Amino acid sequence: MDGRGRAGVRGAGSAGVDPGADPGAAGRAGVLGTALAGVLAFALSSGSWQWFSTYLGVTLLAVVFAFTHPPGPPPGPVSPPVAAVPAASSPAPGARGAYVRGLTVYSLVVGLCAALAVAPAIQRWAWFFPMPGTRTACAHLGRYAALQTEAALGGLAGRDGAALTYAQDDRSVHAVDDCLAATTTLWLPVYALAAAVLTALGVRLLSGAGGGR
Q1: What is the pLDDT of residues 170-189, one digit of tens each?
Q2: What is the pTM of this model?
């Protein structure tokens, strides 16, 4: 082998590009890593949903949008140049299956991050998630927690009225928040699935518009 051949081999090796590598592998790995982070955030959450959950959700969404891209539609088959009539531009079954899987994973991850971001708002804002029956029941539970606090003190309750009021308010707020948080967590999968469906539809529409141009 002459010098030019050896240089060509070295140049191909130093480029660090594997011709058989999947160009979307890094993006899919990023999406899966973000999904894992979201699952961990759900698993570690306990009690009332705090606004730090919104920060986590927004941060994860920023990671998804910055380092990953929605899967593009599968390309149609290339027609041979000698064909008199071009073949129908229908994607291969394997390519379409990969596209559906990628779009599903991408949409579910976005939905999960969106659910994390809106969870505190769902718990706190009645206009965002009404659940009037649950909110009324949780208010009753809060008053019951306040009565329990007073009953636990017994004869000591009359010694410091301000401290008793503070303790009752604190127990009542915690009881109401925990009650609302439990119902919020039950409904979060619905919000996450709705966000995932909207994301999938948006990606389909945008990819169709891009393909039309």
Answers
A1: 888 888 888 888 888 888 88
A2: 0.68
